[in-house]
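Hi F.,

I've been meaning to write this up properly since the lab meeting, where we talked about keeping a consistent format for the predictions we share between groups. The idea is simple: the sequence comes first, exactly as it goes in, then the structure tokens exactly as they come out, then a line or two of notes. No screenshots and no reformatting. I'm using this chain as the first example so we have something concrete to point to.
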Amino acid sequence: MDGWRAVTDMHSAMPAKALSYHLLTARREKALSKPVAKSLTKPAKGSNQLRIIGGAWRGRKLNFPDVDGLRPTGDRIRETLFNWLAPDIKGAHCLDLFAGSGALGLEALSRGAQSSLLLEKHAAAAQQLKSNLQLLQSECGKVEQVDSLQWLRQQQPPHPFDIIFIDPPFALDLWEPIAAALEAHHWLSDEAIIYLEAPRDAHLQLPTNWQLHRDKQAGQVSFRLYHRHAPAIPVNG
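Output, unedited:
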């Protein structure tokens, strides 16, 4: 009690200007000691964003999780790809076999595809894709959390697909078995268009009726567009 009275007496003896300065300093130190609001801090580790670059959702930013092997197709490659697809994308049924962030399947919907089926094995990535479709208020996209190769071999296609995106984790070396399964199990329309990303030096044995239409490189990545023509020679998918 005596200590409190002594402090009070000291404050009452201070000149007005000194007391004002003292109080302002105390308030400032108290404010600085408060934790910073979460909204002002950096996003939590593992948070990433994808930007839709064209079409109805142009400029929309969407979250995707930090998952090993998930590397969204870059803006420049996507711009080139969808310039290639411009005459065919509207009204197309699209199949994104390794959807990841949704960079290809969602971009296709933004640019007028009739439907986009996105396959993704990783649970967190698949759930985020579903959340992003809800955010975009799109009923034209569907997400399946599956192993793509097994799914192609075991399921019946709901309809033939016109545009297929094949961009697997490079370490898994899935291009050839995926291509074989697409043909063997009748997933492709007669004149389907197939987009494929692979290492620049990859030499792939693809179905004989897939004709290379476009081919470009970006660093160590090759991105290619194939047009499907006559029925393929039977393959074991």
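Notes:
The CA atoms of residues 119 and 144 lie 5 Å apart.
The first strand starts at residue 47 and ends at 51.

If this format works for you, I'll send the rest the same way.

G.
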